[in-house]
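Figure caption, in words: inputs first, then the predicted bound structure.
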Amino acid sequence: MTGLLEQPKTDSAPQLSLPMAQRQARLRPIETDGVPALLAERVTKRFVVGRKRKPVVAVNDVSLRIPRGEIYGILGANGSGKSTLIRLVSTLLTLDAGRVEVFGHDIEREEMAVKRVINRVSVDAAFFKKLSPHENLTYAARLYGMDAGQAKRDAIEILARLGIGEKRLSRPLEQMSRGMQQKVAIARALLTSPTLLLLDEPTTGLDPRSKLDVQAFIEELRDTHDATIVLTTHDLDEAERLCDRIAVINDGRVVVEDTPDALKAKVAAERGLAPTLESAFMTYTGKSLDDDLGDDDKDDDDE
Ligand SMILES: Nc1ncnc2c1ncn2[C@@H]1O[C@H](COP(=O)(O)OP(=O)(O)O)[C@@H](O)[C@H]1O
Ligand SMILES: [Mg+2]
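Bound structure (adenosine-5'-diphosphate present):
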């Protein structure tokens, strides 16, 4: 194995020793011409649940191709398979079928390389709550094998952009609001670059103010950072505001994929409906997102 930053061969790329390559990778983008940030082909994941061992197909034959630099939304009701898909891509779950590549690295055969460029932020980000943001970020930097001083400077800069001043960085995380903790989680995920940032419902459960803050930050990332972002949401406004393209997922399947504008135009042209994401969502899933909190009465085909 040549290393973590192995890249497609280009005639001009010199072979660098690993520490140097790592440092360079932070300064300029890795050559990834034509290589998508995320490629998923016919991915399937089943769970076997309950006393009856009834299989649930959480992710069903999903294919995605996400170019570098995009903010890509996975929009779906609760239980539609969003988190499972994210956890598969971040190598926390194994695939039952299909394959996934991250910046050209196969997630099964090159797991370590993938782990370096992938960062997942889930609703309940794993943190050492007794430690300060600063300590948490330093810990993460060590985990990634980064220079601690540089990581610290990067972290401070990122957090400043998030509205978290340096003074607050030494207080235990558990004393901060959830919105604040979520921002620190995103900052931690940005320490490595280039990065495929997987944000699993990054704003769910946040108060309205923190939600807008975090959304604004994600928008800013698109413009300023070398990040490709996949975010899941069941918030139509959020999807519309943030995402370059959206996949609508229903019962584990991608039922439609397009830009928000194209999705809206399509339902208007084809069905004569109001040009909104809401009508697009209802058209393609047969569901409304508003009443997704109840159990969406899955067909009971018990034997
Ligand atoms: N670890 C698990 N064990 C069993 N079933 C699971 C597990 N994780 C998810 N599921 C099931 O897979 C389906 C998709 O869940 P999930 O990916 O969490 O959806 P979402 O994130 O869109 O709410 C649901 O039916 C859920 O109950
Ligand atoms: Mg989920």
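The chain has a mean pLDDT of 81.
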